[in-house]
Design a protein that fits this description.
heterodimer, A: alpha+beta, 5-stranded mixed beta sheet, 4 helices, 27% helix, B: alpha+beta, 28% helix
Chain lengths: 146, 145
């Protein structure tokens, strides 16, 4: 299969977490204006859906780009365990001083999953709700491959 | 360029087993999917075709024609079948989502006469899918999300 058809494997995961959108540099009025309800001081939560795509050669012996057990284990360790049922602002060091918008969450998840050793991470998509989703494929792109 | 996506569903059974592996290795690599009597899924296939709408019809391609191609090439071949034994294109291959998607790509690409096959996405479950693209085509969410 060393031809010009590219195959990617996609997998979806779920986690629930709380966050508060608040920028210490802004005053109360500006935080309220910029973030609205999301600035509620006690935070609020979402059921996030994480969708990732990885690419690589399909191993003829297994028919797989990557063994799902390896991929699931890696995502569990790097993202689900540290994020699920947590406060993103309080419990995730990367969001100390960084507003945990879902844009920033996408970038943080991408950076955590990029070192997956068995396949190449192509992109990360996070659904904050059924109606809002965000996608990040690294610095080289803006949602498009080169 | 406009992308048009058609979705179909089919149900099929399969087993993951490599005769070159020992029984223990098959169990270790393939886990539950190595159950000798097989198991099944409701597959969802999304086929995306790229093209410019024909000025006379406003269509990238005639959906009736795409439906007929999908019926002939995919449904009749795979729906309510045991993929390992009944689909010759998968003979000797492990019928993973990656391999089935690739077989479907190869079946459909030469049949699409108007527009170009852009993406084949095959869901084995709502949480597991494989995408095929021709290299150089931009990956995107496609329709349906």
């Amino acid at each position: 299969m060393t031809d010009s058809v590219r195959i990617e494997l996609g997998r979806r995961y779920r986690f629930a977490a709380s966050h508060r959108l608040h920028n210490e540099q802004f005053g109360d009025a500006e935080n309220d204006r910029v973030y609205g309800k999301c600035n509620n001081p006690y935070g609020h939560g979402h059921n996030y859906v994480l969708e990732i795509c990885v690419s690589g050669n399909v191993n003829p012996a297994t028919g797989m780009i990557a063994n799902l057990a390896d991929l699931d284990g890696f995502v569990e360790r790097e993202v689900l365990e540290p994020f699920d049922h947590k406060s993103l602002n309080e419990d995730v060091a990367a969001f100390h001083g960084v507003v945990p918008t879902t844009e920033n969450l996408c970038i943080e998840i991408y950076e955590r999953l990029k070192p997956f050793p068995k396949a190449k991470l192509e992109r990360v998509r996070v659904e904050e709700t059924a109606n809002n989703s965000f996608e990040y494929a690294g610095e080289k792109t803006e949602g498009q491959r080169p | 360029m406009v992308l048009l996506t058609r979705k179909i569903e089919f149900s099929a059974s399969h087993v993951y087993h490599n005769p070159a592996f020992s029984a223990e290795e098959n169990r270790r690599v393939f886990g539950k999917c190595n159950n000798p009597h097989g198991h099944g899924h409701n597959y969802t296939l999304e086929v995306t075709v790229a093209g410019e709408p024909d000025p006379a019809t406003g269509m990238v391609l005639d959906l009736k024609e795409l439906k007929a191609i999908l019926e002939r090439e995919v449904m009749q071949r795979m729906d309510h079948r045991f993929l390992n034994k009944e689909v010759p294109e998968l003979a000797g291959k492990i019928p993973t989502c990656e391999n089935i998607a690739r077989v479907i790509w190869d079946l459909l690409e030469p049949k699409i006469a108007q527009g170009k096959l852009h993406r084949v996405r095959l869901y084995e479950t709502p949480d597991l899918f494989a995408d095929c693209y021709r290299d150089g085509a931009a990956a995107s969410n496609g329709a349906g999300h």
